[in-house]
Design goal:
This protein has 15 helices and 14 strands. By secondary structure, the chain is of the alpha/beta class. Helix 3 links the parallel strand 5 and strand 6. The longest helix is centred in the middle third of the chain and has 21 residues.
Amino acid sequence: MKVKAYKRPDGKYGIRNKVIILSTVGCANETARLISQQVHGTVNIPNPKGCGQIGKGIEIMRRTLIGLSLNPNVFGTIIVGLGCETTQPYKLYEEIKERSSKPIEVITIQDEGGTLKAIEKGVKLAGKMVGDMSRVEREEADISNIILATNCGGSDATSGISANPALGYCSDALINMGGTVILGETTELIGTEHILARRAKDDTVRKDILKIVKDLELEFHRLGIDVRGANPTPGNIKGGLSTLEEKALGGISKGGSSTINEVVRYSDAPETKGLVIMDTPGYDVESITGMAAGGAQICIFTTGRGTPIGNPLMPVIKVTGNKRTYEKMLDNMDLDVSDALSGKRSIGECGEMIFHELVDVCNGKYTKAETYGFSDICIYRNQEVWCYL
């Protein structure tokens, strides 16, 4: 199957065409925002941290910023820094240039002589880059080039028996066509890791699956944290979910039934195709940000209670299996698969609906979140409560 996409110099394909204004530190966020506001076709990527970080915190931050720039939906990047931060804007610029031949520029507020001069230069650089971007046209690309991010949030009792398994059908369909699907939210794998381990490609992948869950549990114990204080959330409980294991059993069905080929760190790009697990936190915005940094061009987000979440780099398709939620939150929901509960359609038929929506959005159809300009982004940074491979 073919979709229409933008070919990048590295041979990858994006389904959106964006120039990102990438802030390296909180001190540069407002300058980056003002540059983006003045140049249509750019997207502002704020960064609340970027300085005063050490160890894994700064490592994750840098890896994610690089990954966001490398995302296939990005035509080019304008890095905006202060000039004295830990993330070191010019070093970040060189690292991205080494890995990609996409357009990239860097400015720092200190070197330019203040905010107004930095904005002036940034607007000129961004304007030229957007002009170049506008000349790139969509061309046919095989759907095997698509990396699909999956996520669930605001789950309720309908999620695990309707929207999630229907998305799993869609995930299997994409994988069977040579595509890639990312399953994340390690917090919500707890209690199901043995089931996922049985689907591992080999012993290495099996051990990696068990390790990310065990390491997380050990870290919770070490810090004296009871995960039940955050998962299931109050909304999950109100929606009818009783335990984290119950939530996880429904959540893992988003990945379908395919073999798990790889486990990757937060914001790392998969090296294999097929089903991949990314070690992400349970907080939706952080999880999706990591998958975008890992190269996903599109996200399908299942929700029972409803959510408006979007992403600045990739379209987010919102799917619910709760008819009341769909009718109540029509502004935010893209698809209603509640027919799987009423018996009017099978899980497979609802999965086909989701797959067709995936193809339409790849070809340019806007999601509800895109229509409203939602651009939620948050880089995971709490190194004290997360343990990586």
